[in-house]
Amino acid sequence: MFLGVFAALAGAAWMLDRALPPPMARFENLAREVTARDGRTLSVLPAAGGIWRLRTRPEDVPPPLLALLIAAEDGRFHSHPGVDPLALARAATQWIRAGRVVSGGSTLSMQAARLLEPRPRNLRSKLIEIARALQLEWRYGKRGVLEIWLTLAPQGGNLEGLRAGSLAWFGRAPAALDAAESALLVALARRPEALRPDRHPEAARRARDAVLLARAPEVASSAEIALAGAVPAERHPLPRLAPHLARQLREGPSTLDLDLQRGVEGIAGEALQRLPDRVSLAIMVSDLSSRETRALVGGDWMNPSRAGALDLSRAVRSPGSALKPLIYALAFEAGTVTPDTVLDDLPRRFGDYAPENFDRAFQGRLRIADALRQSLNQPAVALLDQLGPLRLASAMKAAGVLPRLPPGAEPSLPLALGGVGVTLREMVGLYAVLGDGGRAAGAGQTVVEARAAALASAILVQPFPGGGPAGIAWKTGTSWGGRDAWALGMDRRHVVGVWVGRPDGTPMPGATGARLALPLLAQVFERLPPAPRAPAPQRALALAAATPMTDALRLVFPPPHAVLPEAGRVVLRAAGGRRPFTFLVDGAPLTTDPARREAAWIPPGPGFYRITVLDAEGAAAGTALRVR
User: Fold this and answer.
1) Residues 277, 303: Cα–Cα separation, whole Å
2) Which ranges carry the Penicillin-binding protein transpeptidase domain (predicted)?
3) Active site residue 73
4) CATH fold group of domain 320-526
């Protein structure tokens, strides 16, 4: 009979639990939190109503804090089912004797119920709290009850939860708190407005010391309490690093390094103070191998005059000369030049196009490597003329860079000098390709041969003009009219990009990448952990030149399933494999120099064609091509 009654009661309790579940809306209405790659809080956006409420698990706080909490609020927490009959009896006796409430007899479970569903303090509310406390323990156990309390406990003002309290009052996560700091948070939860340390410091100090000494003397000695010192005089702002990225992610983990992000934001903040009005900047740091973003500054956050709400790392701008390293790498891959090839930097026209150097002077005869280091315009355009602008555009797409051209325009020679729209994020990805053996992100598609990428990167290893870390390959870029100032660089672990400009795209007279962006690039590399030292430029070039071509044979132009406008001469190009090469169109060989990696072909008319290349070992690569 006893078992039957017990079963009936249990069944009735189960039905009530299902019919009247605990109200968890406040517990689930949390601030949006973005964390760094190590789990530390990177940025927080408040919950609805402007409440800073962060989920706090028992394992997020130090054991002494839990000991203080249980000793101060519910000494028999681990031995009762959610309600402590002894505490309730004591509270009732005190109420009868004093004629008023002396102590509420509430357990942590009852407090959790009240935090979930605040009610007027009366007998009816107390009875509901008792029922809900039993329900919470039944549903979630001791750990769940603690998580509810730790997440919802008021900490003064619009702060709720001990993680929010710890970050606001001490500027760090609760796991790093000492006993005195933990005691202040426990005391605050009792009377959050009367004990706010920024408004009532003496009351807060006394309440903290009382929790330490009277409630849990085993946690801290009298000597330690005497050394506890003053309480915080003001609130710390809650973390708001990487605001542009945090707004995009909204919540969850990121790949950012918190300490590096803080350092890069400091560099950006100091630079913005020196920049003219309406000029902003963007900085990005990526891991060279994984391509994960380690730091990102998208602009001057919340500064309307600098369009701070916009993420300028996504703004489409002209790269100036920053695309030149890819052109040189493609030329090395094609075998048309080497770093030691001597050429003439002299006035020359390419049809109606006559490029000039930045200083409007020409250098005469010089090596290809020196032409890239000096960022000369005419040699870069001449190389692109040999390669074909479509080849550069195809390589950019393979590297994750979308070449944005005017409507209806086809890639042309001005691409060499920045006649295309790109973003900082894309340019960082492009330089990662050059620094990582020509490999694109994701599936690892080869954009350019590893040896060719290494040659171009080695040329760019040079000292910073104003001093800075050694072993960095870097390149600057300046768009027409000084609208965009760029600096991009890489070592063996990271790739960094810096852009400086006006968000509205108006000119900055006299601005250059070397003057505005390059010093910031050097400062960011100073913040990065040291990478394995790169060899000196000449030794790096020798090592890269001595590396044999071991890539698999492939067609680099045309790209797979390309559609070309009806035109005259098309240059087919191969990479990898072993020479000599044979190029075929629909099975018919073209007349060409077998030692070269390219062949000229004039389509007889619109239609579909099959392009194939064979190497000395019989390997084949091909693709379908359509001519409109």
Assistant:
1) 11
2) 283-401
3) yes
4) Beta-lactamase (3.40.710)
